[in-house]
Amino acid sequence: MQNPVKEKLAAGQQVVGGTIDTPDPDTYCAMARAGFDFLWIEMQHSPLTFQDVQRMIWAGRDLPAVPFIRVPDATEGDIQKATDVGALGIIVPMVVEVEKIKAAAKFMRYPPDGVRSLGGGQYGALYGGSYRAEANDNLMLVAMIESPGGVENADEIAGVPGVDVVFSAATDLHSFSGHSQGDAAYEAMIDRIKDATLGAGRKLGGPLQWRSRENFSFFQAPTAPAMISRGAREYLKTEETVAPIEGTER
Fold it and tell me: What local confidence, expressed as pLDDT, does residue 249 receive?
């Protein structure tokens, strides 16, 4: 069992995840082979069930992009199910108080590092018999800071053992603070998150549009429907004169 996202970040590389908010396995697989490092499976703002997600992860089990799940909340039940269906990364939204991310770090890891129940799940079929011994070292935890309250606690959040990435939620920081990207007050919040994260030796995350921002290395790309729309517009511009053989498009 290896987590290529964790390996790339450790090597100083950037990683990008495409967002999945639809339960269609074909769409999942298309995104998983499109060049993303991981897929950001969106369970906070979608009707996806864990059964939907389990089917998609299984369908894409041999494809390059690995599964990360943004859980609905940092509850023991949600995190247990997310890891059981095969997530290699747990993304925790709306982290304000440090206790929330401490609980997530505990729930996602086996003893002695955490309190995850052994149970069952498709993780064994996905990653093999060594999963129990290797999971704690390969699973990743992403803490999302989305409000001024989270910014105030950024040092504590970034310092929690087991946190790998601290993610600056660009639009929600605007929504909660009333400040827009580029405003001095907004950029001061981002700088505070950045200083806390780098000071704790963690990686910085943000939207894909922030790839050129210094020290950011973990990014969320738009949703699959947005990618399909953009790709279709580009495809309509093609000047190809030979029709592809049906079934060879992949």
Answer: 64
pTM equals 0.94
Contact 69, 141 (CB under 8 A): no
Question: For the stretch 172-209, what's the b/e string if a residue is b when 16 or more beta carbons lie within 10 angstroms of its beta carbon?
Answer: bbbebbebeeeeeebeebbebbbebbeebebbbbbbee
Query: In the prediction, which pLDDT does 141 show?
Result: 98
Q: Are 141 and 90 in contact (CB under 8 A)?
A: yes
Q: Which residues pair with 70 in a beta bridge?
A: 42, 91
**CA geometry: angle 61, 83, 98, nearest 5 deg:** 135
Can you give the pLDDT at residue 243?
79
Residues in the chain where the model's pLDDT stays below 70: 249-250
Integer Cα distance of 122 and 39 in angstroms:
18
Say how many residues make up the chain: 250
CB 11 within 8 A of CB 46: no
Per-state percent for the chain, helix, strand, coil, to nearest 5:
40, 15, 40
